[in-house]
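$ ./design --mode recover --in tokens.txt
reading tokens...
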């Protein structure tokens, strides 16, 4: 079920009413309702894959219980390995099986030998990369002794399948989200109102920014040979805003929806395009995934400790794994490799933790140096996004070759005034709100501001209906991951 669909517009209010007016006297009943609603939400896409999420849930629940019952190192390692094999096994089969078969066959073809192979007709379950990582982190944290395993199956199943963040995150840690299912939730009008504002902001980013950018981006990337370098650069920039509006928009809707039900999810995007270097960008982009790889892959490898070679190795591992997580295509590995190349000089120069404070923290505008750093970082990120968006590595290089040609200084073949205007509005609002959790977070202190606030909300709703792309029916990009 899509957040930007009529079905969800009916589903959400219905669950909200049942949650707060029918099951509100019992936390366990609310959890059961959320579990049923979440399975319905996921099953709306394809009910057959409910068995996968149910099996993964059951395995990790039992693993957690059994880990708490034994101190035997061998048994504990076996239980953790079981969890890893089940979760990564599902992911490897559904997401990477055909990729490995094709790559294996192509490798022998390059050596002059042809190996017949059959691709399987495998449908990738929506959200499998997200909920498998969420359950896997639970087992790892229980194994490490960081959290106590829950003995309430309903609570755990609701944690794994929580519908606001089930399909595309944020990838929540059990230490943050799971305890919230065991606490009594009391309706907080201010919290719910802020949730609605964040949902509205997420819809603006998805429907007005991302979907309108998508139409042009698809055309420019599909017909790159017909456009000038300046237009190709525009296409790359529009894709940068498309994927940001699409994914951060989803996260805003997810976080806002969870807030309607009394839950707090982690912030997943912290204005990454205001970053002053690549290291800061990765602390602000897809925070739940970046922090997951940091805690469960990068740090266990040694992190930024050890020799220069070990540091470089760890950086390449983390970025290549992150790229591969996004999809079974060499373009994602290339995207990860390029970001590693951008990151390594900062790490070796001990500059990767330089920009950890808020940009222009005590001023209205950034300094010239900060502005230049932001522009350079955005440019590097945009170049890397070309590999993320291209169908193949060859296509990406052809696209970049087209950008850095003499026609880079030609007049644009397309000038999307409307889209660029909305991107400017998005950028201005998020700059003003850069110290807040989302673009419409407002401290309501005075009653007389209500007409002004409601006028602003109404204007955004009007813009969504007048300028949003409702015909193309674009799904959220990260549904494919």
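writing sequence...
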């Amino acid at each position: 079920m899509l957040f930007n669909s009529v079905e969800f517009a009916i589903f959400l209010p219905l669950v909200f009413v049942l949650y707060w007016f029918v099951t509100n006297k019992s936390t366990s009943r609310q959890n059961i309702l959320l579990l049923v609603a979440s399975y319905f939400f996921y099953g709306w896409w394809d009910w057959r894959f409910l068995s996968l999420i149910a099996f993964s849930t059951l395995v990790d629940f039992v693993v957690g219980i059994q880990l708490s019952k034994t101190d035997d190192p061998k048994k504990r390692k076996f239980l953790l390995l079981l969890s890893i094999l089940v979760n990564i096994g599902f992911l490897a089969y559904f997401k990477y099986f055909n990729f490995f078969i094709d790559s294996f066959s192509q490798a022998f073809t390059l050596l002059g030998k042809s190996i017949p192979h059959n691709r399987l007709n495998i449908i990738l379950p929506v959200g499998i990369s997200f909920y498998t990582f969420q359950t896997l982190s639970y087992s790892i944290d229980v194994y490490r002794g960081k959290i106590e395993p829950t003995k309430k199956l309903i609570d755990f199943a609701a944690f794994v399948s929580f519908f606001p963040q089930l399909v595309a995150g944020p990838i929540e840690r059990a230490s943050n989200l799971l305890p919230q299912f065991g606490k009594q939730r009391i309706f907080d009008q201010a919290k719910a109102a802020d949730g609605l504002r964040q949902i509205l902001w997420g819809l603006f980013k998805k429907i007005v920014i991302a979907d309108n950018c998508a139409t042009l981006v698809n055309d420019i990337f599909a017909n790159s040979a017909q456009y000038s370098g300046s237009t190709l650069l525009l296409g790359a920039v529009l894709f940068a805003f498309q994927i940001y509006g699409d994914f951060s928009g989803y996260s805003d809707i997810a976080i806002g929806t969870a807030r309607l039900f009394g839950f707090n999810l982690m912030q997943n995007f912290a204005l990454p395009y205001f970053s002053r270097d690549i290291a800061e960008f990765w602390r602000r982009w897809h925070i739940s995934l970046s922090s997951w790889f940091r805690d469960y892959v990068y740090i266990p490898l040694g992190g930024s400790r050890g020799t220069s070679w070990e540091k470089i190795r760890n950086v390449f591992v983390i970025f290549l794994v992150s790229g591969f997580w996004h999809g079974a295509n060499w373009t994602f590995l290339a995207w990860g490799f390029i970001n590693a190349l951008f990151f390594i000089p900062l790490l070796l120069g001990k500059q990767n933790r330089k920009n950890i404070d808020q940009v222009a923290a005590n001023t209205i505008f950034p300094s010239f140096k900060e502005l230049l750093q932001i522009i350079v970082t955005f440019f590097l990120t945009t170049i890397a996004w070309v590999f993320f968006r291209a169908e193949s590595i060859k296509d990406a290089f052809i696209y970049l070759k087209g950008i850095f040609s003499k026609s880079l200084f030609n007049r644009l073949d397309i000038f999307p005034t409307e889209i660029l205007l909305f991107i400017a509005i998005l950028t201005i609002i998020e700059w003003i709100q850069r110290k807040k959790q989302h673009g419409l977070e407002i401290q309501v202190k005075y009653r007389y501001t209500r007409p002004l606030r409601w006028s602003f909300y109404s204007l955004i709703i009007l813009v969504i209906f007048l300028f949003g792309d409702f015909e193309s029916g674009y799904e959220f990009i990260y549904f494919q991951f």
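exit 0
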